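Need tokens for this chain, all 476 residues.
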Amino acid sequence: MKKALILLCAVAASVTLSAQQANRKQPPAIGPAPTLKLPAIQKHKLSSGLAVWLVEHHEVPLAQINLIVRSGSAADPIGKYGVGSLTAAMLDEGAGTRSSLDLADAIEFLGANLSTASSFDSSAIRMSVPVAKLAEALPLMADVALRPSFPAAELDRLRKERLTGLLQARDNVGALVQLAFPRLVFGPTHRYGTSANGLPATIEALTIDDLTTFYRSHFRPDNATLLVVGDLTPASALPMLEKAFGGWKPEGMAALVAEVPNAPQLAKRQVYLVDKPEAAQSQIRIGWVGVARSTPDYAVLEVLNTVLGGSFTSRLNQNLREKNGYAYGASSGFDMRISAGPFVAAAGVQTDKTADAIREFFNELNGILTPVPVDELAKARNYVALGFPGEFETTGDMARKLEELVIYNLPEATFSTFVPSVTAVTAADLQRAAARFIQPERMAVVVVGDRKLIEGPIRALNLGPVTIVPIDDLFR
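Here are the structure tokens for all 476 residues:
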């Protein structure tokens, strides 16, 4: 018995050693991208006219209910920037007969979670709840969506929080660059040029009437879709949804919202320096107006950006972090909206390496215009394709993905065709897309940092005209 045990251990050790040696010689082969098979979207309409998209997901006894309103901060009237985001934030600060605290207690008692949010393109009320408690939770969600009370005291509190946040932003280079970059790329008169949260003057001036006017104009059953994902069927869900939302009637006329125009591109590269004396580091943003979510090049751009700055092993991160140690991380991305949002490459870097880092940014931005090697392309395709199914793991994940179809009016086949589209991307596709969507000689270079230490080295790069931007200009 003892000899047999020794022999067995020796064989196991031999197998382990062989496996280790094999692993050293060649990494495991990457398997094919998994096939993404999603449940069907079952579309219904309540008597109020509210569209319902239901997806059955029976793995766990949970339900995710997301009400998506196809209006967000892009619909803010001129002079009232911030009203859309503040309206969404106020929805759960009191609704029906409940105060904000009573509402929070009632939701927590059911083991549910309810939140509100907004973006430039949409507003949302999202609720996750055990299926067994859905009938009790839906009236609470309906109160938030249909009967918000907009208490003045809560508006005053949120207003103070936002004004305090903007005041604190003056001392934070990361917050300053987030305000500066869109303002300088899109301009102060374009809606994308100003934060969705608004400016101090507009936030200060907003009233309850402004919020209720925005709410009545945009939170309407004919401007919304209810996404339902979970351990439900139409037979079990629709009667509850009808009871909660079937009586929703629009108040007044719908707002006539002009489509956000694509901002004009810069004719040539420009450098903007926001002086923050004694800043601990410099924040760099390089980019221009990007592309809308409706672009047919979506899959190509996902792969292209993965190579450039969309992953830890991307060129930008490997250069600025791993090779040169200028930053903890560097990245890039296309913020795709209904209209063309920004493309931006970003990093926070050591003050004394600011100019060096900018030089390396442009080395990589210019380098991506040349053909991407076959092995690098394959890795980027696999990174995007293999990661995509993970975006649908939970009921919440699936509902958030469905929001994209609603907000951007995308075909239902968008998700099922994405992985095949990614795996079909060629080096020629990347080169074509890079030539169109990444033109370094026309990009804005926005730097927030200590001017006395970084201006000279930045000017020595000879990238283009250098404009000094006062911090006050970012807040008005």
